[in-house]
Write a structure and sequence with these properties.
By secondary structure, this protein is α+β, with helices and mostly antiparallel strands. 35% of the residues lie in helices and 30% in strands. The protein has one domain. It contains four helices and eight strands. The longest helix is centred in the last third of the chain and has 20 residues.
Amino acid sequence: MMNNKLLPNGTMEEHNEYCERIADEIDKICSGDMYKTPEGDEIDAARVDPSVLEEYLERMEAEEITIYDYFDEYFDIKFTVSPCRGGGFDYEGARIMITYGGPNVYVDTTEGKVLLYWWTERGEAFLTCNAIDQIDEYARDCFDCYTMC
């Protein structure tokens, strides 16, 4: 999915653009506009002739990419929780690490942003409300699985 090209000593503007590309990709996924073929190729519904996409779908040769697919191999997840009366915790949000080692990139639902860190350099981009809701649903499912173990 995401193209994790390194950004050697980039400017803040370049880091912000990188985060914006990730946020845009997540938004397309959450809007149901991204598909994958059995070969692993991605199809952006906004960039493809609708008849071509329809043909793929009719032949069952493409399936929608979901937020669960996107975060299938995240590196780390941290939950923001609040204590409940009577014990336990309520899920409030999550920070999911999607790349590391230059740059480190997180999707953070409490801040509603994609965040990039590379040494002292930073970048960020806002997520849409729809994306935050779907990511929170995914992360809440992960939190529930962890707390049931």
